[in-house]
Design goal:
It contains 9 helices and 7 strands. By secondary structure, it is an alpha/beta fold. The chain is globular.
Length: 185
């Protein structure tokens, strides 16, 4: 991990978190862009994410196994090791459920977010009504107050025939904004 108070110069160590959203299919594109820019990437996926995209696909684009459970190897205390390894944590997509659970540390991804001292960037993806719901708005405000960066979702086509706010930003925007947060640290 980069020493506190110093900006890393790269290549950077990036944890890409993937939570349960149909937009999980875009996570490999985020990972690919980061790797093409020379950064080392590891992936943490929630169990719900793995219902949308398989661990082999994520492992193939990172070159590392995908971690998802706190109890796969409890003695390794992997969430601490990964949190300390990371220069940056990017969660794309960040579901409404994940936004509500970040402070609970009940899976590998949320425990790592609470452990790391690296910047955390969340890229939400959910249905418009979920994004506009007061509970989600309060969760986002709380996360921002705590120092996490939350990228506002795009407007556009969602699942099915629906369209509106809540669409996962394009991978290029996610990577650009996440690296800008790290560079500005």
């Amino acid at each position: 991990m980069t020493a506190p108070g110093t900006a890393p110069t790269g290549p950077w160590r990036v944890v890409v978190g993937v939570s349960g959203s149909i937009a999980a299919y875009k996570a490999p594109f985020v990972i690919r862009l980061l790797r093409e820019a020379g950064h080392e990437v590891r992936t943490l996926a929630t169990q719900a994410a793995l219902r949308f995209i398989g661990a082999p696909a994520l492992a193939a684009v990172t070159g590392h196994p995908v971690s998802s459970g706190l109890f796969e190897d409890p003695a390794a205390v992997e969430h601490v090791a990964v949190g300390e390894w990371a220069d940056l944590v990017v969660v794309a997509p960040a579901s409404a459920d994940l936004l509500a659970r970040v402070g609970r540390a009940d899976d590998m991804l949320t425990a790592t977010i609470l452990t790391t001292t690296a910047p955390v960037v969340l890229a939400p993806a959910m249905h418009t009504q979920m994004w506009a719901n007061p509970a989600t708005r309060e969760n986002v405000a709380t996360l921002r107050r705590r120092g996490l960066s939350v990228i506002d979702p795009d407007c556009g086509r969602l699942t099915g025939a629906d369209a509106g706010a809540g669409r996962l930003p394009e991978p290029e925007r996610i990577v650009s904004e996440a690296l800008a947060v790290l560079a500005g640290r």
